[in-house]
Amino acid sequence: MSKKVIQVVAAAIKKNGKYFCAQRPEGKSLGGLWEFPGGKLESGESPEEALVREIQEEFASVIQILSYINEASYDYDFGTVIMKTYEAELLSGELTLLEHQNSTWLAPSELHQLNWAPVDRPAVDLLSKK
């Protein structure tokens, strides 16, 4: 049986030279791991539209997408996640944690200090070289 393929998007939100990192809640899939926030694409949405919507839903904030970073995939036990990551900036809101248990802002050189979800690691590698 083939695994389910899940298309997701993520935002590396940058402010004052640092990136916003969010920790997934314990008890949920990939609980305790860190990620660039985002979520699943819904039918008919572009990746950019999905990302703006997800950040609004999960953090009560509005972002503007600046540039495309990468696409990565990872085979989890629940399916294959294919993730497009974009660099973004905060337009409004305070990135209130509605679904995550913790967050931090890190400089590119500090990103490797966290235990990242596997699909996020290629973007972390690219951004840590900036």
From TrEMBL:
InterPro entries: MutT-like, MutY_C, Nudix_hydrolase, NUDIX_hydrolase-like_dom_sf, NUDIX_hydrolase_dom
Cofactors required: Mg(2+)
Catalysed conversion reaction: 8-oxo-dGTP + H2O = 8-oxo-dGMP + diphosphate + H(+)
Ranges of residues in domain Nudix hydrolase: 3-128
The enzyme's E.C. designation: 3.6.1.55
MF-aspect GO terms: 8-oxo-7,8-dihydrodeoxyguanosine triphosphate pyrophosphatase activity
TM stretches of this protein: none
UniProt-listed Pfam families: NUDIX_4
Keyword Lipoprotein: no
Tagged with keyword Magnesium: yes
CDD domains named among the record's database cross-references: NUDIX_MutT_NudA_like
Keyword line: DNA damage, DNA repair, DNA replication, Hydrolase, Magnesium, Metal-binding, Mutator protein
PROSITE patterns assigned to the protein according to its UniProt record, in alphabetical order: NUDIX (PS51462)
Family per record: Belongs to the Nudix hydrolase family.
Designated name of the protein: 8-oxo-dGTP diphosphatase
